[in-house]
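Example: Putative C-type lectin domain family 20 member A.
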Amino acid sequence: MHWGPFLLILMGQCSLFLCQRYKYYFIKEPKTWDEAQHYCRKGYKDLATVPNMTYMETLCTDFKENQANAWIGLYSISGRENRLWHWSLPGVEFHDKEMKWRASEPNDAGRDLENCARTDSSDELLDVGCSHDHTFVCYNDSNQSLHLIDTEKKWREAQSYCREHHTDLASGRAQLKEAVSKFKSSGKLPSWIGLFRDTWRWSDGSNYSYRHWESIDELPVELSKTDSGTRNCAMIALNKERKWSADDCNNRKPFFCYGDEKLILINESKNWDDALIYCRGHHGDLVSIATLEQQELVQEKAKNANTPYVWLGLRYSCALGLWFWVNDQLVCYKNWANETDTGQDNMAVAMETGREHKWFKKNDEEKFNFICSL
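Written out as structure tokens, the predicted fold is:
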């Protein structure tokens, strides 16, 4: 019998099925941020990217383990040279050539790094510290209108106000020009607009500007002109507010991945041959395991089985005296329950769904749940 090509095996927990780009998975096992990134890139696509509030609301909220927080795919290497400008309104890209800065701006002239921008009456921009108080302009997407708020607030407070009462701070060159034209006669300018810069990057390389920080006083990490090279990673609080904060990337936490799940646990009990036929008919193949990392991914999926073992795509060839994966590969990585891996005809391998998740030789007519690769 020819066994089909191997599919990279990947897994996760607590999935939310979306019609949009991002499908999130909550992984309970605590890892450093780098370990979590490696895990997600092997098992899905990457650590979770959160492009806007709509996606924020889809993140999993059923945390039975009562964890405090979890990693997402946002990281920072502090230092003024690492900063990039962003528009606050998700989906509006910043293009430096479109900006009209006042002469010598942006210049970081204040005591702290100047990471936010405001307008003046001549349609020019200045960079200023985000903790200053100014009036501001909100944009409402429902009727594509601009609203001048003449109450002075810090930039982050202004952003929160606009997101709560409208859509966001005015963002993009077109909205900026319209705001100056519409409100300069009121005498209320200069005002905050939705332009800020920070050192934060998404793990998958996307340039989304959406942030949901807990602190409203300053952008995290960017507190000092001398603070350079410090590496921090973003975590989301696992509570109703789900605010973000920064932490040392070497700390261990659960985390969110995004991407398409590459494994599926079938909670039906079948013998090994029927399990193989089912996987090939409905998905890809019975799962194969070539590395310790893949073992860890499969065993997490196996924890949700309702049988004490799950079938793997590993069977014994009596003629050759060898164990083979269904992709025709030899067994390199091993996790046998005993020191010998000799087999006999009509034997296949099942992983225990608890304890150490060891591999056991079983008669292929026994019936267990099984895991398919997609």
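Residues 263-373 form a domain with the Mannose-Binding Protein A; Chain A fold (CATH 3.10.100.10).
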